[in-house]
Amino acid sequence: MAGGQDLNERSLYLLKTLVERYIQDGQPVGSRLLSKDPQLKLSPASIRNVMADLEEMGLIHSPHTSAGRVPTVSGYRLFVDSLLTVKPLASSELDQLQHGLKGQADKASDVLNKASKLLSDVTRMAGVVTLPRRESVTLRHIEFLPMSNTRVLVIFVTDDQEVHNKIIHTHKQFSPAELQQAANYLNSVYSGRSLAKIRDLIVREMEHDQRQVNQGMMDAVNMAQLTFSEQPNDDYVLSGETNLMGFSELSDMERLKQLFEAFSQKRGVIHLLDQCLQAEGVQIFIGEESGYSAFDHCSLVTAPYSVNDEVVGVLGVIGPTRMAYEKVIPFVDVTAKLLGAALNPK
Amino acid sequence: MAGGQDLNERSLYLLKTLVERYIQDGQPVGSRLLSKDPQLKLSPASIRNVMADLEEMGLIHSPHTSAGRVPTVSGYRLFVDSLLTVKPLASSELDQLQHGLKGQADKASDVLNKASKLLSDVTRMAGVVTLPRRESVTLRHIEFLPMSNTRVLVIFVTDDQEVHNKIIHTHKQFSPAELQQAANYLNSVYSGRSLAKIRDLIVREMEHDQRQVNQGMMDAVNMAQLTFSEQPNDDYVLSGETNLMGFSELSDMERLKQLFEAFSQKRGVIHLLDQCLQAEGVQIFIGEESGYSAFDHCSLVTAPYSVNDEVVGVLGVIGPTRMAYEKVIPFVDVTAKLLGAALNPK
DNA sequence: GTTAGCACTCGATATTAGTGAGTGCCAGAC
DNA sequence: GTCTGGCACTCACTAATATCGAGTGCTAAC
After folding, report:
1. Do A107 and B167 touch (CB under 8 A)?
2. Which residues lie in coiled coils (chains A, B) (predicted)?
C-alpha cells in the first residue's frame, strides 16, 4: 500500500497533525478540532474533503459514521517514515540513561537487565533486550566436571565476566583426570580467543584429524565442539510488562493474555527481534506489520546494539500502536548505542 | 474469628455444600438450589434460617439483597480446615507428575522449572517453586578468576550440578597465581562438604586466627567467607501466570496489574512463601489472610519440599480464592514430595 | 423446629428518547 | 476550480424507565 506519493503537502500536514493529535488524546480526531490548527487555515468542510481522500487511500479510518478519524497501520507507517519530527532526548533522560548504564563494570547480564529496566521505566511501556550473541567475546577459562555416565558438566567463562554452563553428552565415559587434561589443553590453546575463532579452529583441527594428534587432544577438541556448537539466541530480558496493562488498547483480557503468553513462550518474540538484527538503525513494527498476531495491537520499536562495531543483539520497546514515536525512537536509538558502549570490554 | 464450635452438624453440612457449589458454579448460591440437595431434606425457608445464622457468624455473605450467598474468607477457612473431603489424585495426573519430574537427572534448576510448569499445567493456575536453600548441598569445586581491581569472580559447583557465580570484593588485589592457590586450598579442604558445614568451618578457622596459619590460607578463608556468606533465598520459578488472566475474580485490570507487579518484584512473594517453610505440610492462605494486598483476591496453596529430610524450599499454586481446593491440596502435597525425591542426589 | 406464603429488594436486561459530535454532500462564494 | 456555509443524517453514548425474576426476611400456621 505505497500510496504516499500522490499526496500534496497539505494532505500530508493534515495527516501529520491528525496522527499527532490522536497519539496525544487517544480519541478519534474530527474535522472541527483540526480546523483549529493555526497552520491549517481551512474550514471543517474542506478538511473533511481531505480526510475523505486520506480514508480512500487507507491512511485513516472512521470507527463509525459519527466519530472522527483514527490512523490506520498504513497511516502510522507513513507518519513514522516521512512525517515524524523526532524530538531530541530530554537532557534529564539522557542523564538517567548514562547514569543508569554506567554502574561499575559488572557482569554483562547485569548491564542488560539495567538497560531493559531503563527502557521500560522511561517510556512507561515494556522494554526488551536480547542476550548478546557470543561471537566476538573471548574465552577466559573452561572446565569440565564429570556427571553420571557419559554426561559432562562444562563451565566456561568469557571476558564479559559471564559464566556459562552446559551439559554435554560424550561418546564415552571420561575419568576426572582425563577431563582435567582436556580442559588444560583447551585452556592453553583457546583461551584469549573469540568464540567465533575457536569454532573455526575446532573445525580445522577436526579436519586433518587422526593423523598426528594424540587421542587426548582429539577428545578435548570433540568436547569443545559440543560445547561451542552454534546455538541460536533464544533468550531476552523483559521489563515493565505490567506497564502494558491499563493501556486501553490492551484492556481486552483475551488479547492481553495472548501477549503475555507470547512473552513467556519467547520463541515468537525472539523470531521477531531477530529480524531487526540486520537493520541499520531503528526499526519499527506497527500493529499487524509484525505478522505475529499476539502483537497485533502493539508496536515494537527496536535498534540493534553493537560491541566493537559488530552487531550482537537487539533492544526495543513494546507498547500500544498509539505511542509517542517521536520520543521513543530517539530513546531506543541512544540506549542501543550506550548499551553497546557499556558492554565494550575495557 | 474462631466460631466454628457452636455450629451443629447440619449447619456445617450446609456450609460445606454451599462452598462446594459456589466453587463449582462461581455464582451466589441461593436457598432454593441448596434445598434440592438430597441429603439436606429441608425447605428453602429453613435453609434461609440456617444461612442467616452462618451470615451472622461471618462465614457467608450476600453480595446484595436478592442474591444467594457467597463464602467469606472465614467461610473458606472453616471449609478447608474441617469440612473438605480431599479427592485422591487422579491416576492420570499422578502419572503426569511422576513422568514429568523423572526426566534424566539434569541440573537442579531444570527440575524446578519442570515442577513449576507441572503445577500450573495441571491446575490451570499459576505454579511457583522457590529455589532450594543451599545448606545441605555439598561443594564439588570452587574457582576464582580476577576481575578489575579488587573484584574477584568466584565460581563454585555443587553436587546438584548447579553452577553458581558471584562477584566478591576483596581487601586487596590478588594475582592470578594467588587466586589459584587459594582455590586449590579451599578445594582440598572444603570439597565434598555441605555448605552449612563449610560456613561452620570458616567461622572456626577465623576464630583462632593469625596464630599458626599462613597468610595465603587466611586470604583463602576470607574469600570463602565472602563467597558462602548466608544469603536469603530471594528467587523463585513461576509458571502459568497467564492462566490467572481470565478468572473473573481477577478481571479487574488494576488488581491484575498489582498481582503481576508483585510477581516481578519477587520480594513480597518470597516473604510470603518463606512463612510456609516451617509448616509441616500443606499450608493455605486464603484471600486477605496473606496480609499481602496484591494477593487479596487470590489463594495460595503451598507445601514445603525436602531433600534428605531437610526442608529446603516451598512450592505452591496461586489461583483465585474460588479454586478446587479438594484437588489442588493433594496435588501440591504430592508434587512437593516428588520434587524432593527428584532432587535427591543419587 | 419446620414450612408455606407473601411482600419486598435489587441486579440484570431491554426499551426508549434525547443529545451531540461528526459526517457527506451540495450549492453558492471567491 | 477551490473553498466554505448549510443541512440532513448517522450513530455512539447517556439517562430514564419499565419489566423480570431470583432470592430474601418475616410471619403465621403446622
Report:
1. yes
2. none
Q: What φ, ψ does residue B313 adopt, rounded to 5°? A: -170, 180
Look up residue B141 and give its amino acid.
H
pLDDT digits (tens, 9 = 90+) for B28-58: 999 999 998 888 788 889 999 999 999 999 9
- Residue A102: predicted pLDDT: 80
Report how far apart, in Å, the C-alpha atoms of A138 and of each of A159, A311, B263, B326 are: 6, 16, 36, 55
Any strand D atom closer than 7 Å to A43 CB: yes
Amino acid at A249: E
Distance A20 CA to D23 C1' (A): 53
Cβ A131 vs Cβ A236: under 8 Å: yes
**N- to C-terminal Cα distance for chain A?**
48
DSSP label at A131?
A: P
Looking up cell 515524524, which residue turns up? Answer: A84
Q: Who's near A136: CB < 8 A, 6+ residues apart? A: A194, A195, A196, A307, A308, A310, A312
Lowest mean pLDDT among A263-272, A282-291, B98-107: B98-107
> CB-based burial of residue A110 (10 Å sphere; 0-12 exposed, 13-18 middle, 19+ buried)?
middle
Grid cell digits, residue B178 = 594467588
Which residues surround strand C, with CB < 7 Å?
A 28-33, 44-45, 48, 51-52, 55, 62, 65-69; B 41-43, 45-46, 49, 63-67
Cα gap B218→A163, rounded to integer Å? 26
If you measure CA to CA, which chain A residue comes closest to B105? A148
Helix (H) / strand (E) element for A268: namely helix A267-274
Minimum mean pLDDT among A26-35, A123-132, A228-237, B319-328: which range? A228-237
Cα-Cα-Cα-Cα torsion B77, B81, B84, B87, nearest 10 degrees, comes to 120
Query: Which residue in A has a C-alpha nearest to residue B106's C-alpha?
Result: A167
CA B301 to C1' C13, whole Å: 39
Candidates B247, B246, B169, B174; CA nearest to B215 is B174
Confidence of residue A176 (pLDDT cuts 50, 70, 90): very high
Is nucleic acid strand D under 7 Å from A64's C-beta? yes
**Residue A189 cell numbers, joined:** 590453546
pLDDT at A4 over 50: no
Amino acid letter, residue A15? L
Number of Cβ pairs < 8 A linking chain A and chain B: 65
Q: How confident is the model over A60-85, as a mean pLDDT?
A: 93
| pLDDT over 50 (residue B3) | no
Question: pLDDT per residue over B63-93, tens digit each?
Answer: 998 889 999 999 999 999 999 999 898 898 8
Kindly report the bases of strand C lying within 7 A of a protein C-beta atom.
2-5, 8-11, 20-26
A→B contacts (Cβ < 8 Å), by residue, are 105-107, 140-141, 143, 145, 147-148, 153, 155, 157, 161, 163, 165, 167, 241-242, 245-246, 251, 253-254, 256-257, 260-261, 264, 346
Q: In which order are the strands placed within the sheet that holds A151-158?
A: A139-146, A151-158, A163-169
Indicate left, alpha or beta for A170 from its phi (over 0: left) and psi (-120 to 50: alpha): beta
Angle A321-A85-A283 from CA coordinates, rounded to 5°: 50
Q: Which residue is nearest to nucleotide C24 (CA to C1')?
A: A48
CA-to-CA distance for B125 and B320, rounded, in angstroms? 8
Count of CB atoms situated within 10 Å of the CB of A293 = 13
CA distance B294 to chain A (A): 13
Question: What was the pLDDT predicted at A37?
Answer: 81
In 3D space, the residue among A323, A286, A324, A322 whose CA is nearest the CA of residue A87 turns out to be A324
